[in-house]
Every structure is written in structure tokens, then in C-alpha cells.
Design goal:
Layout: E1 11-16, H1 22-35, E2 40-44, H2 50-60, H3 69-93, E3 97-101, H4 104-114, H5 119-130, E4 137-142, H6 145-155, H7 166-182, E5 187-191, H8 196-207
Parallel strand pairs: 1-3, 1-4, 2-3, 4-5
Helix pairs in contact: 1-8, 2-3, 3-5, 4-7
Length: 213
């Protein structure tokens, strides 16, 4: 197939609270897609470009705990704008599939649900920065908050977000689930608490929705 005949790639995002197992399952998703002859570009948010990774460092740094909520929100979308321009949109146009660790659903969950920023303000920035760009499939790895925080606490020193309390993460989780309930055609909510092989079978079933036969 020539480059001019390439169809636009698909955009898959992985979401979930702390300790949900995104890293492990992103590796599984990439391998599964490649086994089905899909060309995959793996990336993450905030991050994915040199500039966006620098913004990520600021956002996660515990030394910036006094950051204003609006500053946090605007930095998220600043990183996203660069990410879309440099990585996401060019690859989709070339027929590659994007596999992204978090995207705008995380902004609705963490800055909207967690911080309490009005969803309408986030939606306005989403429209401005992304235009019509939305994921084709969003997989939400869901599990009880206490279980997720226990898992996260074993892997590394907590970053600025991971140091938030249970009430914050309950709002994050609730927002994810509300968004999935409102648009079931785009979301797949995966119970991340069972054994890994069960979780990954559910993920494979969700991926089959967007992978051509």
C-alpha cells in the first residue's frame, strides 16, 4: 500500500487512577496490536515531546505543591497542544495508530473531578486545543481506590498528584466512570482488580472493537 493510500490511524488512550496497572497493560496492548498487524506509536501525557516532558516535570514535582489549579490546567493543555502537533496528529495522518498513556479524560478526572475546576472550562480548552480530535477508544482501568494507592505506594516515591488524599481520588474515579457511562460507544471500563490474565482478556475484547477483522 502506498503512502497516499494510507487510511488515518486510530487513536487509543489508556486511563485509570493511581496503581491501576497502566504500564503493564500498555505493553500488552502494544504487543496485541502489533500481532494484529497494526503499526503503533506509544506515547504519554503529559509528555511525549521534549517540551511537553519538561512541563510534565514541573507538574509532577513535589516542590510545586503551591501551584494554582488554573496553572495546572493550562500547563496540561500547553503540553497537549505540543504533543498533538508533534506526535499525535502527524502519525495519525501517516496511518499509524497512537497508544497514549492518559489524554484529556485525565484532565476531566484530575483537574475537573479532583480539583473541582468547572467541566465547561475544560471543554472550552479541549475544543480550542484539539478541535475535532478525540480518541477512537478509551480504556479505563478501574479498581478500588485503596487497592490502587497501595499498589502505587510500592513502586516509587509519590509524586505531587499521588500525595493527594482519598477524597480527591474518589472524585477522580467517579468522574472517569461518569464519562464512560455517558459515552459507552467510546469507552471500555475494565475491572483491574482480578488476576492479570483476566484483565488482559477483557482488554483484548475491547481492542477487538476497533481492530479490523
Amino acid at each position: 500500500m502506498s503512502r497516499t493510500e494510507l487510511t488515518r490511524g486510530k487513536f487509543i488512550t489508556i486511563e485509570g487512577g493511581e496503581g491501576a496497572g497502566k504500564s503493564t497493560n500498555i505493553a500488552f496492548i502494544r504487543a496485541w496490536l502489533e500481532q494484529h498487524n497494526v503499526s503503533v506509536v506509544e506515547t504519554r501525557e503529559p509528555g511525549g515531546t521534549v517540551l511537553a516532558e519538561q512541563i510534565r516535570d514541573i507538574l509532577l514535582d513535589n516542590k510545586t505543591r503551591n501551584m494554582a489549579d488554573d496553572t495546572e490546567l493550562l500547563l496540561m493543555f500547553a503540553a497537549r497542544a505540543q504533543h498533538i502537533k508533534e506526535v499525535i496528529e502527524p502519525n495519525l495522518q501517516q496511518g499509524n495508530w497512537i497508544l497514549c498513556d492518559r489524554f484529556t479524560d485525565a484532565t476531566y478526572a484530575y483537574q475537573g473531578g479532583g480539583r473541582g475546576i468547572a467541566m465547561q472550562r475544560i471543554a472550552a480548552l479541549e475544543e480550542w486545543v484539539q478541535g475535532p480530535l478525540r480518541p477512537d477508544l478509551t480504556i479505563i482501568l478501574d479498581l478500588p481506590i485503596e487497592m490502587g494507592l497501595e499498589r502505587a505506594g510500592k513502586r516509587s516515591q509519590p509524586d505531587r498528584f499521588e500525595q493527594e488524599g482519598l477524597a480527591f481520588f474518589k472524585r477522580v474515579r467517579d468522574t472517569y466512570l461518569q464519562r464512560a457511562q455517558a459515552q459507552p460507544q467510546r469507552y471500555a471500563v475494565i475491572d483491574a482488580s482480578p488476576k492479570l490474565e483476566i484483565v488482559q482478556q477483557d482488554i483484548a475484547n475491547a481492542l477487538a472493537r476497533v481492530v479490523p477483522n
